[in-house]
Amino acid sequence: MGNALAVPTLLGRLDASLEAAAAAGPLVAGPQIYQSLGVEPVINCCGTFTIIGGSVERPEVRAAMNAAAKHFVQIDELADAVGRRFAELTGAEWGMVSAGCAAGLKHVTAACVTGGNPEKLIRIPDLSGLDKTEVIVPRSSRTVYDHAIRNVGVRMVTIESIEEIERAINPRTAMIYLMADNGPNAMLEQVARVAGPKNIPILVDAAAEVLTIPNVHLQRGATIVAYSGGKAICGPQCAGLLLGRKDILQSAWQASSPHHGPGRDNKVGREETLGMLAAVEAWVNRDHTAEWKTWLGWLDTISKRVMTIDGVKTAVLEPTDLSNKSPSLAITWDATALNVVGDDVAEELATTKPRIAVGAGGGDRAAQAAAPGTTGITITAWQMQPGDDTIVAERVHAVLSRNRSPRTTEMPRPSGDVSGRWDVDVEFYSSRSQHTLQIEQDGNWIQGSHRGDFSTRELVGMIEGDKVTLRSVDQRPADSITFIFAGTLANGTISGPIHLGEYLTARFTARRHAYTTAHTRIRVPSGPPLAT
After folding, report:
1. Taking the model in full, what pTM does it have?
2. Per-residue pLDDT at 7 exceeds 60
């Protein structure tokens, strides 16, 4: 079974050494600032994930933010000056800083709905009486991030093809939303040919992309393009960058803090505003080729160290796509030779000191396809810091070179039969819900269904001794929540934690359903009723 039902790395348990360190104390600024609070930091070898802090701000960014913090300024005047400077730097018509990329999506949507009319703005998210209330989006662009757009109250019109876009456009269409795609099947230019003559704005979400100057998306027909400030650009983690048409971005700024209305909760300060500008100023002048060579050098250090282990192979992957553009190192091996799989190595690195976040799976799909027993991890370079390469090289070498017993495929005999219907009390942080599990057991293996608050979905799992592990996935357009039940069977109940991925944890107690209906004979009618 391996880790098919494993808890996602970095969200699971920490080892005893890390738990012991978790003690409250006064904040101490300096290299040990996180440890002073009992929190163990992470060496980032997996990319610009917000959940571990995104990216490292450039020195120019920190300097600009520190300088901005020492003086007061009228925020609208600052936004106007910064918007003009973004235009000079990028060639776009205008620019705007938002409180992250998602907030930028929200503000642009509000701008396209209201047209800068504050009477309309203050009615969001109740769009009754407004003429622009719909956003068209291809199904391939439906993601968890479009919550930011839905927060405005618009109706999402999901389409499958360019022909459907033509049919979907109507007087209520506020804009079209696309996830950035630079591949051969990218829709932007086709969409622009349809939307342009009808004056329908196109918003492109390029959150994780490197900044292109002149901007490739605006050149292909986008009206506005949105970036994360705290990813590739290495600006403030809590900032976003919007580039494009001036009138729409001015309406988007009106919908943003410090102005009251639906965007007042997305505050961007003078510090983040100038930090974001400093990041773009730096981007224009950075030696990106030299940075890439530095990253390759770090990966080479790691590669040379782990290649001293028999059976370990490495391959450097250099992507050409604009999104998450960083070289990475695929480290692969035969799982039966080292008696460990990539998921387990990734979890050990993430939960023991020094903590290292890596990708599981090895990344080199061609190698894994050629050798089905191949497993591995991936090291992504662009958020590593000087000196991390030697630490990572030694840690990965130590973990992979450890002698391990062969992985057994035998599973402990189940301590009981859990087939049947179970009533489940789920305890969230501040509420409770009643769920139902319908279980069929075949030896160690479990299948069935899980009825939650709003849907019933397929359930899979296993029982090993008294340990019951179950998984279901609640899916809806643009959203997915995985429930992993890690329970113990005892005294007629199954109880334990539920791991909810990014939504953290809950607890559950399941009891067999008690059927109370009395035995009753059922009469089969001999014909149609004579009365109703």
Report:
1. 0.91
2. no
